[in-house]
Q: What sequence folds into this?
């Protein structure tokens, strides 16, 4: 993808300016145009993949998600083409919005785009077209949503229809119903779970925060904006730490093919004034992510976004992923709604959190521990609270990073017998430099896990309860990553090198290992940075080279864990 050279007067840190973002949007919009049907109502991208919703729905997805990009770009020429497609689509080309159907998702993108560009698109349509379009969208007000972020799609449709005076009462009900629903999933600290359970991933940013905050902002509802904007601002305190020094987002969760849609909540905070980040931090993080993907094959030779992470990669896809699915990355261009003279475009970029200092950050709501190192720009996520077995292994591994993806050989896992599963994850707490959880393996076996971190070093403790004596246990560390190395060393109850093995005893059995993922050329040996001693009582004492000491004790059958510094 051809972009203009860096303007060093605006971006002294090698990031992207507004001109880069505009050029990227224009290139993406230009590349999809040849794949529109003659009536412009559908966009069918090349390839033999089809989502489980079928080709017609996939074509609508291509229209809706690229329309959203044109709306953020406010490209009047492109919007004229999409106006033609809208007129044709609502005359029987598009599938109806039905209960739990993919068109409900795409209706939200269309409604949001129409609301953002009303003077440029909607107001210029013939009245008959507007009536048919409102009627098509209207089915989205009462269609049953899947009980997750989908509940916000009727909210988004209702916000637009209420604004244009169509089915005002039904629109209000849809808005109230959806916003009330997500209250059940708000767990505090700026975090939502994506539906029931403990499903924490990027949907927090590109759905759970995006739609309510944009609705409140567009409706000029200060009460709602204070509520949802306040949650967004708190979320961004943690969210800014999920990006590596090279701009890479963490490789965790589902729908990763949306790529730089991860930048949407960053821009949203700047757009609404609900952010703890400076203008320079916001652009550094956002532009870093866009640049990261564009320089690593996210766009193919035809200028199309591929189904994958860097280039094509089926491992990050789900059944609902169709040829146009990656164009939810359009959400990453939300920042183009900010005028060219906004400080987010004019301020000098500032270092991202990972670039400023080493940090080990406890994130209480999802029970995560974020570990980042300035020297190599790596961010590691220790997952002791997020689970969605439908999308294993992107939820159920013990750790994720900005430079590694889950490996088919079960990286970052505790394998008891031959069972690598990790289900029924129960958070046991998170604090300064540590996180803990318990999970189930097969029938009646429980594993309590604690990670302690400092710098790039990790102490991993696992206690297996309920397994027959002599049951084999394997502990794995980090998979190979881009330009980095993985280390795993036994401390207690384990033997081996890259994969550690041991066996259970009669009763609860403790296993301890040291781990490290680093891109440093010549790091100090692990044994010089930390020492670990396991007492006969089962207490684990950890002493870091900085002098800090921590002790870990399990209680009962692994339902509780006590982690405290030696001076507490």
A:
């Amino acid at each position: 993808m051809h972009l203009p050279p860096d303007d060093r007067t605006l971006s002294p840190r090698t990031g992207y300016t507004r001109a880069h973002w505009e050029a990227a949007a224009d290139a993406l919009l230009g590349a999809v145009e040849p794949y529109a049907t003659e009536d412009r109502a559908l966009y069918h991208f090349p390839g033999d993949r089809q989502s489980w919703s079928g080709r017609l729905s996939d074509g609508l997805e291509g229209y809706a998600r690229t329309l959203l990009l044109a709306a953020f770009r406010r490209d009047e020429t492109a919007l004229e083409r999409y106006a033609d497609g809208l007129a044709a689509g609502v005359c029987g080309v598009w599938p109806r919005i039905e209960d739990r159907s993919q068109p409900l998702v795409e209706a939200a993108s269309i409604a949001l785009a129409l609301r953002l560009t009303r003077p440029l698109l909607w107001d210029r349509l013939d009245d008959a077209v507007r009536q048919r379009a409102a009627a098509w969208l209207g089915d989205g007000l009462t269609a049953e949503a899947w009980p997750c972020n989908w509940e916000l799609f009727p909210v988004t449709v209702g916000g637009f229809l209420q604004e244009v005076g169509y089915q005002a009462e039904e629109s209000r009900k849809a808005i109230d119903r959806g916003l009330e629903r997500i209250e059940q999933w708000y767990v505090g600290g700026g975090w939502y779970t994506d539906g029931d359970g403990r499903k924490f991933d990027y949907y927090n940013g590109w759905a759970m925060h995006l739609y309510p905050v944009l609705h409140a902002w567009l409706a000029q509802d200060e009460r709602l904006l204070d509520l949802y904007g306040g949650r967004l601002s708190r979320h961004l305190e943690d969210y800014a730490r999920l990006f590596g020094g090279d701009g890479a987002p963490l490789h965790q969760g589902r729908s990763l093919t949306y790529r730089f849609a991860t930048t949407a909540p960053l821009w949203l905070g700047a757009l609404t004034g609900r952010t703890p980040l400076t203008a320079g931090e916001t652009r550094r993080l956002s532009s870093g992510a866009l640049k990261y993907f564009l320089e690593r094959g996210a766009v193919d030779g035809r200028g199309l976004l591929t189904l994958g992470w860097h280039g094509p990669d089926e491992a990050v896809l789900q059944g609902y992923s169709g040829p146009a699915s990656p164009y939810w990355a359009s959400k990453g261009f939300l920042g183009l709604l900010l005028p060219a003279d906004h400080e987010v475009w004019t301020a000098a970029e500032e270092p991202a959190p990972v670039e400023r200092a080493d940090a080990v950050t406890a994130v209480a709501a999802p029970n995560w521990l974020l570990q980042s190192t300035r020297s190599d720009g790596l961010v590691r996520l220790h997952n002791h609270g997020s689970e969605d077995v439908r999308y294993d292994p992107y939820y159920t591994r013990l750790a994720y990073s900005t430079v590694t993806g889950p490996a088919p050989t079960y990286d970052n896992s505790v394998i008891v017998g031959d069972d690598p599963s990790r289900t029924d994850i129960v958070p046991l707490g998170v604090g300064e430099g540590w996180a803990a959880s318990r999970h189930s393996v097969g029938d009646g076996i429980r594993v309590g896990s604690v990670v302690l971190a400092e710098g790039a070093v990790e102490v991993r403790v696992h206690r297996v309860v309920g397994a027959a004596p002599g049951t084999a246990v394997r502990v794995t560390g980090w998979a190979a990553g881009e330009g980095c190395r993985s280390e795993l060393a036994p401390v207690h109850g384990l033997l081996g090198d890259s994969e550690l093995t041991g066996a259970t005893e009669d009763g609860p059995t403790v296993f301890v290992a040291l781990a490290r993922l680093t891109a440093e050329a010549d790091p100090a040996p692990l044994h010089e940075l930390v020492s670990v001693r396991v007492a006969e009582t089962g207490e684990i004492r950890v002493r870091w080279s900085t002098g800090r000491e921590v002790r870990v004790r399990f209680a009962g059958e692994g339902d509780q864990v006590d982690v405290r510094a030696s001076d507490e």
